[in-house]
Amino acid sequence: xxxxxxxxxxxxxxxxxxxxxxxxxxxxxxxxxxxxxxxxxxxxxxxxxxxxxxxxxxxxxxxxxxxxxxxxxxxxxxxxxxxxxxxxxxxxxxxxxxxxxxxxxxxxxxxxxxxxxxxxxxxxxxxxxxxxxxxxxxxxxxxxxxxxxxxxxxxxxxxxxxxxxxxxxxxxxxxxxxxxxxxxxxxxxxxxxxxxxxxxxxxxxxxxxxxxxxxxxxxxxxxxxxxxxxxxxxxxxxxxxxxxxxxxxxxxxxxxxxxxxxxxxxxxxxxxxxxxxxxxxxxxxxxxxxxxxxxxxxxxxxxxxxxxxxxxxxxxxxxxxxxxxxxxxxxxxxxxxxxxxxxxxxxxxxxxxxxxxxxxxxxxxxxxxxxxxxxxxxxxxxxxxxxxxxxxxxxxxxxxxxxxxxxxxxxxxxxxxxxxxxxxxxxxxxxxxxxxxxxxxxxxxxxxxxxxxxxxxxxxxxxxxxxxxx
Length: 470
Ligand code: NAD
Description:
By secondary structure, this protein is α/β, with parallel strands linked by helices. It is built from 15 helices and 14 strands. α5 (about 150-170) links the parallel β5 and β6 (about 180-185).
């Protein structure tokens, strides 16, 4: 479904018309284009406070990119007087002088904050620089998980980062830029790399105002940056179209062999998707009683297990509660929620989910905020969050489980919405546009990355910072 308004306001006439009528002027987002594309280019400015420790790992990550790295060297952000902390190529930049550069990213390591007074360093870093953030730029703040801070003042300071980042995201969204917060576990600096690369890159174009928690990780053998999922087998449900087809293509692009699953009537479309990526197609209704064993048998027939399980299949059956027939309720809960549990249970019972495996579920902002006429769907998608959070505490052998919660994504599901609701859904977010299936797929690829083994139990929204929900 194409966004006619987005194209119109990016013509000379459309721009002027939108400005004079006070209408939103969304900027077309820049998305990931090719495998060898660096995760960040241009000028990157790094700042830190106190004895923040993540900054040296940031430095290492940035050193592997062609970006020109600067570090804030002003008195108020004085921990970065030593360039070596931010990698060998970093140059000092005083924030007290006029700044000429435009930045593709502003990155601030706040992990060293000990009290709410330290929040002043956040202001000192961003106040002189935020207007220098380029279109499509990235703001990334790294803090500590407030739950890991024993001192209330320290917990307050780190929690404050959430309100700060969510507000920055609203201010920079009009130029197609994003702002996000990574919360690390104490001593978990090494686990940040894959998340830093995701949030600084074009892969996270439609992810803004989000908080992701990254725990400590075990050492991971080096991975091929262009094909990090080489050798992995992925199961993607609902893969014949929309978001599922894009997930299958994205995971295959990153090196995985994909089993695409969908209901029998979609076999023609599913086969096209799996043929184009060298994958395998499986006709299966995930709500059938035998579905979990059918899936397990298919995996055993072709592979020695599965590494990535992506529960994407979903349906909506909208009606207000008083008018909702019972089969609408039952089907929606069964497809969007219960089937996922049964499949995971069977794969784990038969020991088919491999070490360092990944399970990713698809929630929705309807599951976070609720939605008129969607009591069944919202309950199911909210249940997905409960399932992921509980499972995250139980998974073993390096397995992680996370969820994405898409907002308005341009698919056949949203194309079926009435025009006014569709238009409202598209514009009611900080980037004033709908996302694309690939935006959801990229977030899933980040969860699936071998180095993301510290990313567990998260629910990250892919919604352009929708105004709906928290
Ligand atoms: P879609 O309707 O285009 O695709 C869903 C796929 O799931 C279809 O191919 C369908 O055949 C398959 N499916 C349905 N029931 C199944 C069953 N019983 N067994 C096997 N496969 C089944 O939907 P989409 O927009 O691509 O959504 C994908 C996921 O993202 C869903 O879980 C949806 O709830 C979620 N989501 C979508 C949006 C959005 O804006 N499009 C927003 C939030 C969440």
